[in-house]
Amino acid sequence: MKDVLDELAAAQRAMGKGSVPAGDAYTIELRRRYDAPIDDVWDALTNPERLQRWLQPVTGDLRLGGTFELDGGEHGEILRCEPPRLLKVSWLYGPDADAWPGTSEVQVRLASGSAGDTEFELIHAAVLEEPLFPIYGPGAGGVGWDLRLLALARLLAGGESVDHEAVEKSPEFVRRSAAAWGEAHLAAGGEPEHVAAAVEATTQFYAPDPT
Q1: 159-179: per-residue pLDDT in tens?
Q2: Pfam families under this entry (predicted)?
Q3: pTM for this model (two decimals)
Q4: What are the φ and ψ backbone dihedral angles of 110, each rounded to 5 degrees?
């Protein structure tokens, strides 16, 4: 578990404001460094065989303007693809999501570091009316992205694939991740009582107390 917590601490988190085609949006933002060259990180983001090892199995027309679908139900369109530095997709989830296009987008930017490493930035923008946010705050999506970037770190280091389900249900991982997103929420001006309630709701959603 120590390496998992170390990876959590390696990321900088922020919550901000942005826009998507459907209107004003809030953003959850993750920035970190990977000890791997930029071409290797880009390949991990776009090669279906490697993508399934840290995110999920993916199908579709994987080119600019094409569409994709993950095994978990997330799907969308490839909006920008500028190897090896920028990938942007629409990001919809759920059986009714297609009724609200343009409400959620994910963008990843890469930059080469001075030591042959890679600076990684992920920004997930979603409309302000997104129903999970009032309850869970940025942890609604942030905990899931923490898990995926942990798996990406393991892949880039040449290690074994992460057991997503086991880590996601780890009370310690969830507690640390939810608390970190609570700190980002506070820094963005969130009301302390709302932030505390959102952190607790996120923790209980991902790792509920045994009954």
Answers
A1: 766 666 666 667 888 999 999
A2: AHSA1
A3: 0.92
A4: -120, 145
